[in-house]
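FW: tagging you since you asked about this chain on Friday. Here's the raw sequence from the shared folder, copied in full. Didn't touch anything.
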Amino acid sequence: MAYRAPKATSIRETKSVLFLQVSDLQKHPVWQFVTDDEEDETAVRPVNCLPVSSLVSRIVGMRVRLANGSSVWAIIGNLDTKNAQKNEHFVLLSIERKGKWFQLERYFDLKYREHGPEALARFLGLSAAEVFPISYDVRKYAKGEASALAGKVPRKPRVRLTKEQLVALAVPEVG
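HL: got it, structure written out here
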């Protein structure tokens, strides 16, 4: 049975992704970045027809499960509905605690030391072992490969890719 989100009050209902709250995500789990010249690059609007066939330029707000079994609200972005390997390296994750959001940086990001796994664990008041791996399952909201839609965000990737390998994974060959 397909998930049916509540109707938005207006197709123009936009909000900055920086100001999304759990209550917004409870009403509308999937949000689309607005590609309108009148809006700034952080503007998103709710998606009402779920499940979606693509998560390109979309985020999903939902509860994720920490390694210790507890669940927390998260915003998941940059999720490829067909490529689990790509998601292992490129998925974006922001975690909510007490009304504040923490964006987890990936091993190749510039702010990894300040916003990496250990910093997320401190933000949550837990040890890294209690937090990672973080499990997510967006199959209720998107169509695609099950292995890509339900996965884990590890503390460290199984394999760290080189810059060239990351670029090759991010930009598929055109042939």
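FW: The chain has one domain: 15-165.
HL: agreed, and The first helix runs from residue 22 to 27.
FW: great, closing this out.
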